[in-house]
Amino acid sequence: MGTMRIFVTGGAGFIGSHTTRVLLEHGHRVTVFDDLSSGRRELVPPGAEFVRGGLKESRKLAQALAGHDAVVHLAAFIAVGVSVQRPVEFAENNVVNTVRLLEAMHQAGIGRIVFSSSATVYGVPKRLPLREVDPVGVQSNPYGATKVAAEAFVGAYHQLYGFDATVLRYFNPFGPNELCEPETHLVPNVIRAGLERRPIPLYWNGEQVRDFIYVEDLAAAHAGVLGLKGLNYFNVGSETGTRVRDIVQAVTDILGYTVPIDDLGPRPGDVAATYASSERLRKATGWRPAIGLHEGLRRTVEYYRSRLKTET
Question: Does residue 107 fall inside a structural domain?
């Protein structure tokens, strides 16, 4: 698989910006298509072409998409809590816009897509670690439902038109460039609170177990699957379950001082424990995480520390 022209939707976002950089490093030519509703122009790596646009803008999408070999589709709303408040907007953006993109690809004769999905599709795990053969579960929020639906449409375009399609089910990505407002994810919230010496908000007293994957490792998985044929589903995780409270401990160790905990109690819809088997991805592409949890957290703390310095 030589150099490809790759179209990255959501490439100005957290995961998209890292994925774009990895694709450029592999020698591919990359166009980032992003409406900047949550992405940031300055996160788009130099060397990528940038087109500001949304997937609803059919003419702009068709013009920008023409001539590409593959699509990496990362543009989506991601806040679980917001999805409960605004289910129709989430369905429109995450599902209908995915179908618009797939249809635009079909019209343009582009038959290769990597789709960013989520471990939430499994619902409440029946067993751990989660494997790709495990059934997709009933969803406890509209965000998860949009990922299940979008996966189904990707599968339909494979069946109808022979798309080579890879669905990547992310576990818990963290790392530099995560700049959601409001921030709902654990690692940036813990680090920001720690740096600002304010209480760290925790649900369930931090007992829940998650699989944290450093964003650069996650980004590398996208480059590895571009050449695969057929319809593929892969978990992308570190294969290690880590308690949330141990993340807090690791961050405070890096900071060198303790930070009080703000115990928020239980939160409905949370799964007690989830972590991945990524054996299938490893066998297919040789991918494995290169950055351990502590090194990833150290780099992330440095990133937010330097941002805080420039902001104050």
Answer: yes
Range of the domain at 119: 5-174+212-237
Q: Tell me, what CATH number does 170's domain have?
A: 3.40.50.720
Has 143 been annotated as catalytic? yes
Please give the chain's pLDDT, 312 residues, in tens: 689 999 999 999 999 999 999 999 999 999 999 999 999 999 999 999 999 999 999 999 999 999 999 999 999 999 888 999 999 999 999 999 999 999 999 999 999 999 999 999 999 999 999 999 999 999 999 999 999 999 999 999 999 999 999 999 999 999 999 987 767 789 999 999 999 999 998 999 999 999 999 999 999 999 999 999 999 999 999 999 999 999 999 999 999 999 999 999 998 778 899 999 999 999 999 999 999 999 999 999 999 999 988 775
Closest to 8 (Cα-Cα) out of 27, 32, 44, 43: 32
The count of structural domains within the chain is 1
Determine which one of 143, 170, 233, 275 is catalytic. Answer: 143
Taking CB atoms within 8 Å and a gap of at least 24, the contacts of 182-185 are 182/79, 184/79, 184/80, 184/81
Cα 42 from Cα 89, distance rounded (Å): 26
